[in-house]
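Record passed on underneath.
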Amino acid sequence: MPAHVIFGDSFLVAERLRAVEAGLSESPPLDANRHRLAGNQTNPAELVGLCNVMPFLDPQRFIIVEGLLGTFETRQGGGRGRQTGGRQSQRGVGEWASLTDVIPNMPETTILVFTDGGVSQNNPLLRVLQPLCEVHALNAPTRDALAVWIKNRAETKGASIAPPAVGALAGLLDNDLWALDRELEKLSLYCSGRPIEEADVRQMVAQAREASIFAAVDAILEGNPGTAVGLLRQLARDGRDPSYIITMVARQLRLITLAKELGQGGAAENDIGAQIGVTAQYPLRKTLEQSRRLSWEDLKVRYRRLLDADLAIKRGLQEPDAALELMVADLAGSVRQR
């Protein structure tokens, strides 16, 4: 099928996108035939024009549209759509309804792919695209499936991993697949020629701690209080104090705010990363996803709640651990109620 919709966990989306592109031909398409469009900065006429152009010196033209479905996400009871660029609303798909005619009539040389993060099944654009595209909904594995994923991922790197080591990695990083893949790469090199053991994971915990901090912040901002509290307790056991964790949450909120402002100003993703000082791909992807999902009001609420927790600790009104867990419950819970 010449059109695909790939959404869900960003690691799995990136993998599937690479697989789709790898299946096009024996060599990657020329830059002139490979287009990556930001969904909140493109329009139907621009996309239709690209889809109908024949490739230059290549068998196919590869077009990726990032984040378009997310602009049609709606909040429960909010009456407003999720706005990545402030352009879409809950009014329906509008001009994008023309895709029902465009996609079936594209040249066979055009491969069109829509990518996104979390997308609900009632997303109006997804419902338009489902009959026209091959749809891949890719959720990060959890529990037993996560253990299998870690084991299999280690094997792809030429390593084997003992069950206790699998549990240790999952406990540290949850289902942050980018961080897990990165740590497995390090462990496979470190343990070359022998199985990865739990002691190896613990020995490298210094590198994993920062990933755990990011995973905890991510869980707070994405509405997963159980995961967030579990990760924060692990960080506390590893010696991280509540003030440091609050500082990290504040830092991520600042990055999200800057990324949102730059994105709405039309900056490209790589430029945003350079300007906010985040160049590693996983943190940049997550920061951009969060900046698209959270509204300005959402960010104000989170800053206020963060300040309340910080003042409660500094003024001795609450025990640090209690203040932190209450903050996490409030912030993550408010996301789930949207």
